[in-house]
Amino acid sequence: MRSRVPAAGLVLGVVCALIIGCTADPPPATPPPPPPMNPAPGASGAGDPYYPMDGNGGYDATEYQVGITYDPAKGRLDGDTTVIAKATQDLNRYNLDLRGLTVQSVEVDGKPAKFAREGEFELVVTPAEPIRNGTSFRTKVLYGGDPSATPKAGGSENGWQKSKDGGAFIVGEPHSASFWYPVNETPRDKAMFTLNARVPDGWTVISNGREIQKTAANGWTTTSWQERTPVAAYLTTVAIDKFTVDRMALPDGTPVVNAYAPGAEDRRDTGRRLPEIIGFLSSKFGPYPVDAAGGIYLDEDIHFSLETQTRPTYAKWADLITVVHETAHQWFGDSVTLNSWSDICLNECLASYAQWLWQESRDNENLDDRYRAALEIMRGSTDFWKPKLVGMGAGQEFHGVYDKGILAVHALRRKIGEGAFARLLKEWPAAHRNANANWADFEAFTIKLSEQDLRPFFDAWFHGTTIPPDAELLPGTLRG
Fold first, then answer.
1. Where exactly does CATH 2.60.40.1730 map onto the chain?
2. Which residues are paired to 149 by β-bridges?
3. Going by C-beta distance under 8 Å and a sequence separation of 6 or more, which residues neighbour residue 207?
4. Which residues of the chain form CATH 1.10.390?
5. Under a CB-based contact definition with an 8 Å cutoff, are residues 352 and 402 in contact?
6. If one looks up domain 341-479 in CATH, what number appears?
7. Which residue ranges have biased composition labelled Pro residues (predicted)?
């Protein structure tokens, strides 16, 4: 006798196959091989017309995770920084910018990499394996030294400086970040920024963005700051001092952190007006473009204050109108960042005019009268009219943009009319939020918005080296 179960099972299997197509899955298709790589070195400069070796090519930095330990008593900085980037070509070698400090080791994606120093500030990295175009990769650099000993670039006040009471701070334009961490130091490559700074107990660390963590152990305090809005390298900062810190918030909850170095506490009333200033500027320029605010108030006689992103750094002499200027840069310079240093008027001409807007609103100042008074004083000064506001030449970036630039923007306001000018101040930063732009973009944008032929105006005011003709010098209500 035979069991009937196997036969029944066979019939059931045939029926199953007929009804639902029970068949074995075909083997998966073999994926095509990746295209061959053609690795080459990334460019050793980003191509700025004035500072061609600044920055690098072959990749796009997306985030800096900067770790430092700094002992003010010794003046030594030890760094552990990871640069997260995406390759824009097949890479067998690429550069970072780092000034002065000694590099101990470099890893790429966890593997030891060869490195060399070239020129004034090039850190050349050769990974163990080539990096494919489009691939994200991580470069970890251990380094250290006395950052204040590094020769300054672009002026005596660009770089790491010790404060009079023993702390330290970093400001610089166009060079700043490369004095204390490895970086792609070009404003064209904005990235997120995180700082973990370890200092002896009793010292306070202030930086960009929001404070996300603070821990203490064994006599040292580690503070973490994070700026998630992409930031140009020169706008990152750290300040270490025995600060008095005031905390508050904007009406929408945005945190405000003001830090006052010893000797700067008398400016706390100025700092407390920041919500008012941001509210006013937002009414002119559109929503505040970053998610933190505040200021770092130094007791140092440096010659400039700087619009370090979210939290400008102020010199000893800085007053309320300086706070207006540096806060305006959060729109013009920080959110909308220049493409090249020849485009500096995008930053300074517009932020300087914010001072006039504030005084027009708060002090009831007649800006046409102020313009005419300045014109009477400067009409015969060849030195005043000589600096170009665009394409001025290396080392001349900050000549003219603060004074001639204000008059130029006011003349533009009268040339295109109140309605178009009000739209320009809001629509320009909205169109280029968290991006880069050049001066030619601004001219084209303004011409399109105003529906006027402004080329003679721009040529006379921004590209010219003599007093503009009366048609451009006294447009609209300025004719009197």
1. 37-242
2. none
3. 195, 197, 223, 225, 227, 236, 237, 238, 239, 311
4. 341-479
5. yes
6. 1.10.390
7. 27-39
| CATH of region 37-242 | 2.60.40.1730
Question: For residues 459 and 465, is the Cβ–Cβ distance under 8 A?
Answer: no
Class of the CATH-defined domain 243-330: alpha beta
Of the candidate ranges 13-17, 71-75, 154-158, 280-284, the one whose mean pLDDT is the lowest: 13-17
- Percent of the chain residues topping a pLDDT of 70: 93
Write out the E strands in 289-434: 293-297, 313-314, 336-338
| Amino acid letter, 324 | V
Residue 320 CB contacts under 8 Å (≥ 6 apart), including other chains = 270, 273
Report the C-alpha gap between 212 and 309 in whole angstroms.
17
Distance in angstroms between the alpha carbons of the first and the last residue of the chain: 121
| Distance, CA of 167 to CA of 158 (rounded, Å) | 17
Q: Is the pLDDT of residue 8 over 90?
A: no
DSSP state letters, 115-127: EEEETTTEEEEE-
Token pair belonging to 171: 């400001």
Buried b (16+ CB within 10 A) or exposed e, 109-119: eeeebebeeee
CA gyration radius, the chain = 28
**Which pLDDT tens digit goes with each residue over 85-120?**
999 999 999 999 999 999 999 999 999 999 999 999
Spell out the residues 6+ positions from residue 243 whose beta carbon is closer than 8 angstroms to its own: 204, 206, 259, 260, 261
477's tokens? 């209500």
Question: Is the Cα dihedral 194, 204, 67, 98 positive or negative?
Answer: positive
Q: Report d(CA 54, CA 45) in Å as an integer.
A: 5
Which pLDDT belongs to residue 24? Answer: 56
> In whole angstroms, what is the distance from residue 60 CA to residue 311 CA?
25
- Mean pLDDT on 377-393: 97
